[in-house]
Amino acid sequence: MRSFRRRYLFFAPLLIFCSLLLTGCALLPIQTSSTYFKDLYKRIRYTIEGQYRVINLFYATSRESDEKKNSSIYFTNNMAKRITTGTLDLKIDPKLKIEKMLPYRLKRKGLIGIQNIEKADEDDFIKHLSEAISASPHKSLLIVVFGYKDDFEATAIKAAYFAYLLDINTPVLLFDWPGDQGVSPGGYEKAQKLATESGLYLGNLLTRISCEIKPPKLWIKASSLGCQVVCDAFEEMYKNPVCAGPETEIDHVVFAAPDVSQKEFDAKFKEHLTNLARKLTTYVSSDDEALLMSGMINQEQRLGRQSIRTKEPSQMEAMKELLYMKSLDPDRINVIDVTPINDASYKHGYYLECPEFFDDFYQRIFDKDPSVNRRLYLLKTKDNTDYWVLQGGK
């Protein structure tokens, strides 16, 4: 009994002190959990239907509508006289992971597919897009443009795959164009022509978005021949005196494996970039087989295939024009070599198949300094221009 009393006398003051401390803490002004989590970075939104997650994308396409509805989700591979706009619902199995990108194989396996598609008048489309941007945590819009070979359905699957695995809560707008021409030199050349023509449609749409919605964060990610569409869209915007003003319209443009003429880029896009976009990141590779074939067909070097992995960075002559451009404005332009991590199909589709690309893309659009990414290795050229190499985790 005495032992219990002694223990009680010892612990009683401690218990009283702790009670007072906890009472005082309860009275402190603290941020509630709901407010705290509201301010955190949020992931992509989705609804649940059975085993699937369903996400919504906006789309705009320069394809001709298929009135007979016997082609890829009601669009042909011909150019239309005006764009068609609307929304897409796509179902995704949560087991989906970054892997080899074969859209119709993923569809057959039940991992991803279009659930619903709706068309909308362009004015209504702009209104709904504006509402989605206003409701997003970053007040942002991500526009994605893909390249040669795929029809509308396959391109929509790729856009949903990219958006879902990137996992950022932002409205996503797929700009689609009739890139599914014949798999032959003639078919590729026709696709190039249609890419340039589609630039007019994208340029007009970007002008409306920039002037009417004015999203604080407007990101454009283009890959392969889709980069040609964006280059010609910028040329069209540049003709507009509103867009050619001193204020930049686009926050960040990202080119991955750009199938664009190096000469055309130097002659036209550099000036357009300076006036219309705040930042540009270009991902290049020295062993891109698809761009090797493109270079042979076009008889000139493509922007996305650069022979840049030499023992002496000062001797990277093939990169001198792009690196010169970066040296003029190093805070706005990044050149990233993905050769070490490029194990994608034809050494070309790394922008859909390599986890390292997804990680780095996320950091670029959120303005993280390249040095933050421990996978990036910095080289210096002869004129002291930064040149980044993206490495794997091993």
Instruction: Give the total of domains.
Output: 2
Helix content: 40-55%
**What would the CATH topology of the largest domain be?**
Rossmann fold
Mean pLDDT, to the nearest integer, reads 79
Biggest sheet, open or closed, and with what strands and sense?
A: 12 strands, mixed
CATH-level-2 architecture of the largest domain: 3-Layer(aba) Sandwich
Low-confidence stretches: 14-40, 308-321
Shape: globular
Supply the CATH superfamily name of the largest domain. Alpha/Beta hydrolase fold, catalytic domain
CATH class of the largest domain equals Alpha Beta
Q: What structural class results from the helix and strand content?
A: alpha/beta
Q: What amount of the residues lies in strands?
A: 15-25%
Q: What integer value in Å does the Rg equal?
A: 25 Å
Number of helices: 12
| Overall strand count | 12
How far apart the termini lie comes to 65 Å
Element order: H for helix, E for strand: HHEEEHEHEHEHEHEHEHHEHHEE
